[in-house]
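User: I'm curious whether this sequence folds into something compact or stays loose and floppy. Could you predict its structure so I can see for myself?
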Amino acid sequence: MFRTSILARIALGLFVSAAPAAFAAGPCSGPGPGSRVAAGDPGWTNIVPGNDHGQTFTATRPRITGIEVELVTGNLRQDDSDTLTLALTTPRGDVLAEAEQTVESGEAGWLCFALPQGGIDVRPGETLVLRLRDTGKVIFGWRYGRSTYRGGHTSMRNLDPSTSFAFHVHDASAQPGS
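Assistant: Here's the prediction. I'll summarize afterward.
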């Protein structure tokens, strides 16, 4: 009985100590606001620098560790790639963080941008803006569709205000269920 109880305590201790690793596995794990686009919704727009497209959102957590956006390859170029930059800004345009990734032509789906220094602190309730751009090669596009997110809006010329870009903001430092 003594032996079982010690083994049970050791197992419980290992299980409890392993929990933080599970929720801090990567910058794009953990809770936060976001918008998904239905699979059959074909909307996307190129992300060349001059377009200045963005998505406002309301911070729900005190920290942002990573941001995902849903990409499409709009103009396939064999054996080519482009560098994409995601900027997190204030509504006035002050840059809070930027992250870059080089992406191969043909890639599509959710792409995680890890914020520098393990993330940044923000104020819950604060309005922030995501801006995504490429280098001007016009290979990739950012998906959008009917809005599933009520805490912000897109900023893109000639776009119906009832749409939103596909994004998800994460706080990987959050405790599960918090």
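Summary: The chain has one helix and 14 strands. The longest strand covers residues 95-104.
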